[in-house]
From TrEMBL:
Phylogenetic placement of the source organism: Eukaryota, Metazoa, Ecdysozoa, Nematoda, Chromadorea
SUPFAM superfamilies: Eukaryotic type KH-domain (KH-domain type I) (SSF54791)
Compositional bias ranges of the Low complexity kind: 377-393
Protein name in UniProt: KH domain-containing protein
Region (Disordered): 373-520
Length: 520
């Protein structure tokens, strides 16, 4: 049922009646010119029934017409106007009701004035039995299809159908065909139920022999999953081996059900439809390397993997204020794309670690090379070895222990063991001093004179030493260096003076033997 509603400016907007409640009608306007809602019946008008023999009329200058004129709200409404000029199929008009203005419109958008009348209708009620209550909507649709320009609606009780028609003739026709309409609705409902049962059994039979996988997608990502104009779903259904893709929409999550001949085909369809947001953890010291200069590295990862977007966690501390060792990278895309992005990140981190290790090795080697060039001797003493000085280098002052000027190194020296210039030197008896001239020194070092007065020579040619508080035996007990049993004294020589390596100073030994002295 179509009407024209007059607004406050005096123009009429075309609309469709969806329900009648007392003195008001619910209208749905063409092109949404006005909001859908309840409006007064008194402000509505309808076209008069057209005569079957009415011939199309040609417009002339001065005719009064109802023209469909574009209004200030960019919507079109009928407005009373006068024809001022005719140019082929175009009419130059001037509005005489509502907003006054002139316009040029097509002749097809005009009709002669006086072809409308106020909105009025006739009504009747169809009572439904219990078997038709659940099919009431189908009955209403059948009535409106059978009776032109009529409106059928279920009343508040849900058991009756109210029918509104423009005239009594339409109501009479409805009374004649109502039983037929109800019978047809019943037959159609029975066939539809049978069709649904067969389709359900067919689906169950198909599913038993097919591979079925189900997965959910967050409502925020459904736009990506469906694709522009349902492109992704269509592509999934076109995969060879995919029987059907069913979408069950809910509030927060939507469930996809893929039916396929093989698991491979089902997983291929899933790869096109399943969009998720997943986290990839990156070591904190590698975040800058993964992002790269001006974001080039992360952009390359996004492009190669096929993920939709990536978000990088901004927080570097946890809730307790501790510094995080890993930063979250949130990738949005298909499961396969996110796994590929994670692989690229791990590959890049491994490469950076290896490069850092190589650079560190190069730096260490370079430092060693620099030190070697600054100190040619390296970490070794600059010594030369030959047989001229018993293996000691002339570059270092030799230190010897034992006889003054000797070359025995750290060995303890005993006069009885030394044979110099092919002359045997015998150890003098303890408590005597032998003739120093009988002892030869390799470095011609002259021993210093004895401290204190020189003791008078003994009858045997040796100087007699004063007693030494028992630390050294007397001459009567040890004569000519032999002990009381006739054996030579043990080699108890103390450490000799340090020889010419330190300027020729000779330091007296420790122990019973004082070493050779200068000749008296």
């Amino acid at each position: 049922m179509e009407v024209e509603y007059r607004d406050t400016t005096g123009v009429y907007y075309p609309a469709k009646v969806t329900r009648i409640d007392g003195n008001q009608v619910r209208l749905s306007f063409v092109n949404s010119a006005l909001p859908e809602g309840l409006y007064a019946i008194s402000e509505c008008r309808v076209l008069k029934p057209a005569s079957g023999n009415a011939a199309p009329r040609n417009f002339e200058v001065g005719d009064i017409v109802d023209a469909l004129v574009r209004q200030s709200n960019k919507k079109s409404a009928y407005q009373r106007a006068e024809v001022k000029d005719i140019r082929k199929d175009l009419l130059v008009i001037e509005c005489i009701e509502g907003p006054l203005k002139g316009d040029v419109i097509s002749a097809g958008e005009c009709r002669p004035a006086g072809q409308t009348t106020s909105f009025s209708f006739k009504s009747t009620v169809i009572e439904l039995s219990s078997e038709f209550v659940e099919h009431s909507e189908e009955v209403c649709q059948a009535v409106m299809e059978a009776i032109p320009k009529s409106l059928a609606q279920v009343d508040i009780s849900g058991k009756n159908i109210q029918v509104f028609a423009p005239d009594t003739k339409s109501i009479n026709r409805l009374n004649v065909i109502v039983d037929t309409l109800l019978s047809q609705v019943k037959q159609k409902a029975s066939l539809r139920q049978k069709q649904e049962d067969i389709a359900k059994r067919l689906e169950e039979s198909t599913v038993r022999n097919k591979v079925v996988i189900e997965f959910t997608v967050c409502a925020d990502l459904m736009g990506l999953a469906i694709g522009a104009g349902g492109a992704n779903i269509k592509a999934a259904r076109d995969i060879e081996g995919v029987v059907n893709v069913i979408l069950d929409e809910k509030d927060d999550y939507h469930t996809f059900k893929v039916i396929a001949d093989s698991e491979e085909a089902a997983e291929a369809a899933r790869g096109l439809l399943e969009f998720i947001t997943d986290c990839v953890k990156v070591p904190a010291d590698m975040v800058g390397k993964i992002i790269g200069k001006s974001g080039r590295t992360i952009q390359e990862i996004v492009d190669k993997s096929g993920v939709i977007r990536v978000q990088i966690g901004e927080s570097v501390h946890d809730e307790l204020g501790n510094e995080l060792t890993e930063i979250d990278f949130l990738f949005t895309g298909t499961q396969e794309a996110i796994e590929l992005a994670e692989m690229l990140i791990e590959l890049h981190i491994k490469h950076v670690r290896e490069m850092e290790s190589i650079r560190k090795s190069i730096n260490d080697t370079q430092q060693r090379l620099t030190l070697a060039s600054e100190h040619p001797g390296g970490y070794y003493n600059n010594r030369s070895y030959d047989n001229s000085n018993n293996g000691r280098s002339a570059g270092r002052v030799n230190r010897f222990r034992g006889h003054s000027g000797g070359s025995a190194g750290n060995a303890r020296w005993s006069p009885a063991e030394t044979d110099t210039n092919s002359s045997n030197v015998t150890s003098p008896p303890i408590g005597t001093v032998s003739d120093a001239s009988s002892v030869a020194h390799t470095d011609n070092f002259a021993p210093p004179p004895p401290r204190g007065p020189v003791p008078a020579p003994h009858s045997n040619g040796h100087a007699k030493l004063p007693p030494t508080n028992g630390s050294i035996s007397g001459a009567s007990e040890r004569t000519n260096g032999n002990s009381s049993d006739g054996r030579p004294p043990p080699n108890r020589g103390g450490r000799g003076g340090r020889g010419g390596g330190r300027g020729g100073r000779s330091r007296g030994g420790r122990g019973g033997y004082l070493g050779p002295a200068a000749a008296v």
